[in-house]
Records
---
Amino acid sequence: MSHHPSYLGVFLTFARNSLIRDMTFRANFIIESISSVSWMIMNLGFYTLVYRKTTNIVDWDKYEFFVFIATTMIVNSLVQTFFMPNAQELSELVRTGGLDFALLKPIDTQFLVSLRRVNWSSLGNFVVAILLLAYALPRIDGWTLSIWHVLLYPLYIVLGVLILYSVMITLAATSIWLGRNQSLYDFWFYLTNFSRYPMEIYEGAWGTPLRQVFTFVIPILVVINVPARLLAKPLSSEFAWLGAFAFVATVLCLAVSRWVFKQALWSYRSASS
Amino acid sequence: MIARVQTWWTILRICLEERLVYRGDFALGTLMRFLPIVTQIFLWTAIFAAAGSGKIEGYSREDIIAYYLLTMLARAFSSMPGLASGIARQVREGEIKKFLIQPIDLVGFMLLARIAHKVVYYAVAAGPFALVYYLCRSYFPGWPAPDVFAAFLLSLALAFAVGFFMEMTLGMISFWFLEVSSLLFVYMLFTFFFSGHMFPLEILPDPWRTIVDFLPFKYLAYFPAAVFLGKIEGDAMLFGLAVQACWALFFIVACRVFMHRGFHRYSGYGG
């Protein structure tokens, strides 16, 4: 008899329960999917307009940049599907004292509070992003699909999602210290806003330090840039180090966020019971 | 008459107190709202570096950044977070009944609450706004002529009126449909794209460029900023102000009409 819970089994149960819950309010589910998709379509419209006035942004031409946007959509939709609702709920759990129940369960607390709820409607953007990739990739000059694309692109997407998750759970853990963290979502939005652009645009007296901070201290620039460049641009040795760095950054981020989360848990005082 | 003024004054004071409870949250939120402007500066620098000619639709790089900063100011006047959804919630939960029973005008009460909200917001946000504008002063072409500046201030005030009464009208629709959140989302998308909050509207190709001229959205962000930067001047500016005032008037009447029709339809659910 094993004393370890089956993490995969528990996660699949969470996923199924969430799907049942989403399907109970089907109209709401459809509206939410449409809203998040239309938001991205508007964003795409903006860049279409910009590319009528210019041929490229830094060294990204129109279709390469569409791949970049699609990558942003994929990563963000995965984060929103699996982690966003949970991180938001964590501060609520702290405020109401509901975290007590999570602590009592015979399973890793971080796992439980991070993956409890799956927000299926956010996957709408994922589908649109795949369509956008299928549209943009063949239109890039001299682009051919290689085995590296197929193998590494999904891998770097996962690494990106994990980095964003680490930042998010660290932010959410601060709600344990602060008691309440309502502006979590705002702060998250403004922080990840920096990651939505090719890192080369951060240039100059202010830009270069900014780029270095967001590459090496809080590596959110790695999140989109590495997979997008891998897929849209020919592989170059120049960016090989960045590809290697992405692995190191992900491991470090996960380790640090785990440490912060555990520290925060130690200072948790139950609000009620 | 005096009693009436006293009533409204009391309501305004209560609303002010209510808003000040969250002043810390306010100040932090305001500062964070400027973070996207940093990426916008870098993005447009990159776009202009590639565009070559140095101007896009008459806007230089400096103009565009000044434009974004000015639309943020205009949006501080015209955006009404939670107004329509608040009315929808009151209708749904039956809270709106109090305006039917008490001798208080719904629109007037909401207007005062919103003015209190805005006054507190400006008091808290003035610091961050001044700081960011000072840091970015090199992007501005300098102070406009006094008459242009007066027109700019007037357009900001009208932007508040258009924003408030348009969203009030939208909120009144909840008398007919109990759930309006998706409608509000569409409204938000439209305002974001067609108010010029995302980019100067000159960038839009025809026929869109013409269509936005017939919509009220551009008076929420684009118009005040364009007046300040001298993109719209002379007779066109006066004409624009007149149209903006007409839109404000239109929605003042529309929200009244919708309110009275709505009150007639209304049956109070909930306790």
Note: Residues 2-265 of chain B form one domain.
---
Amino acid sequence: MPEATTLRTLSDPGRAGPASRLSRLAPVHWLALAFLAAALGFAAAAWATGNGFYLRLATEALIFAGLAMSVDLLLGYTGLLSLGQALYFGLGAYVSALVLRDVAPSFWLAMAAALLAGSVAGLIGGVIANRVKGVYFALITFGLAQVAAKTVYNTRALGASDGLIGIPQIQVGFGPVSLDTADPLSFFLLVLALTVAAYAGLAYLMDAPFGRTLAAIRANEKRVPFLGFNAWRYKLAVYVLAACVAALAGALYPMLRGFVSPELMFFETSGNAVITVIVGGVGTLVGPVVGSLLLTALRSVVGSWTEHHLIVVGVIFMLSVIFLRKGLVGALLARLNRRGESGRTGS
Amino acid sequence: MTKTTLLGTAALILLGLAGGASAAEPIRIGVVTPLSGTYAPIGQQVRWGLELATKEANAAGGIMGRQIELLFEDEEANPAVATQKAEKLFQVNKVDFLTGTVNSGSTLAVGQLAERNGRLIATTVSFSDAITTDKCSPNVFRVNARAGQQSAALAEWLAKDKPKAKVYYLGPDYEMGRSTVAAFKAAAEKTGAQSTGEVFAPLGSKDYSQYFGQLRAARPSVLYTSTAGNDTVRLLTQMGEYGLLRNLTIVGASGTVTAQNIGAIGKAADGFVTGVGYSAELATPENKAFVAAFRKAYDTAPDLYGADSYGLIGFFKAAVEKAGGTDTDALRKAMEGLSWNTPQGTKTMRAGDHQAVQDMYAVRISSDGTNNRFDVVGTVPGDAAIGPDLCTRF
């Protein structure tokens, strides 16, 4: 008996058999579903009380959750710490803003342009950043973002330090029906749907062979070539994927707030995304979403209450690093798993 | 149980009484300003100026019998945070008016938000010309002087004090630094100054001596610079060490030498002249009373931001009284063309672009290394410094 338990904890419990695989998959997706239900409940409550501000705040949290998810792809699944993910978020925001303001007020065109820009920039950035590993990767991503941010900050055509205002509020067309980004509820539901779609797509991908290879890279990159995989290609692919996710999230920002500014590319934005992922739960995808909602709400409330709100967020970050090593969602999942285990042995 | 119920009822009755007794709802002004980070010292002056003026206005009976209430939010000098906080103030706290934004990006973004929420805002700090020229908004007012007014005032003083001066320009190599130099150059050339050359040094340069050869070869009588913070400290002290400060008048942007870096510059700051909308040394009775009250309350002298923010409450009070309430359209109409008194003299809100017209001052620093004074050496009338109305949106 004791031998069996040791084996079990050492090997990945989820890979033990089909039955346990199902029970391992379930908790994180159940959590995501519970989150979706809560989000819809929140939307209904906010709509019933006519509270546009909280809906728009939640929309912003979901947009930054997209950025955090892209950090999680790199950090949680591949083991790459990016300190410059705001580069792609800001790029998507600026591209979307320019398209909406100067080309056509079309949601789909803006998203497509942001996606294209994100993949091209991600490819370039990925080739540069993936030349090095570990802390140097973090520094290169940080440097790339700083260069881009300073360039935008000093480019008059992009509004320089003032940023761009006057991004119109638009109608998003789905065939015969359309919704208005100016309406807090519709836009919240749209962004929620996009977030759920991104979560589902990325979670599927991370469970597919692609994701398993990334996990192998995170576990031991040197061994991956012996299995017949080119680690560099996979790292580049996930870097481009993360850049695209961040760019698409960024593209939604000017639709919500009507402006873009170089601060969106600054280290503060990148750093906040990393904090969000660590507080929410690294390598869970749903963790970044929960973390983003939590931290956005916290900043808004604590920020009104004291100007020392950064200390409060910092303390929460440290506490979660010390006591919740796997973040909120990680801790919650561990509990759920433990209960599932004890339930099974009990029956 | 019964005791708590009783207490609760009593409290409710008391609250009801208090509510009935007070004449009216307070007028709420939202203040979105940096309370943390690099710009916190500016936000602090904004806060002090507004709080002092509010305390005085409330003691004198408020606005039409209603007290003024200030609600502060920290914008972290980040437009993305500023819009979020401003939206909260507009939609949740239902403020009647909003102010406090410091960096120009925040003012522009919050101005657009105000338009979408049907409210008015005013900035007391941002000096980017765009706010009241090509990016002007019907819902945004500026009660402080913009960059153009500052350089016009300085150029005006230069033309009078040193006619046909030969000017050399040294700016920090980034967008704001270059545009500030370009604006002053245009203003100075218009008033007869002769440009002898320009050079741009990277932000945070450690060694400026590499530019001194060019500077000397150009033989200027005046050097204009738009460096800020520690860059100014290094530039001026190095020029002093090289003996370049003799027979050279140094002028610059209003943020080049401030109370924050003058201590480190020391004697090298002596003689520096800039164009600004305020100096605590202004010798008017209104200003003397203001500075005394400010010192008494906060134990420090007001700066430009504190004075402009203090003056805003008077502007708002006069406009609400003229409009008979806080309805947006009526208030906007009342604010346009309004003249009001401030410690800086009388200001007039130009209707065409919502830019305040005010007398501008040329301020010279006299320093013996430990004691520094910002003396007013020239006054440029508001009309001479304001420049044309370039706003076409309304």
Note: The beta strands of chain A are 171-174, 177-180.
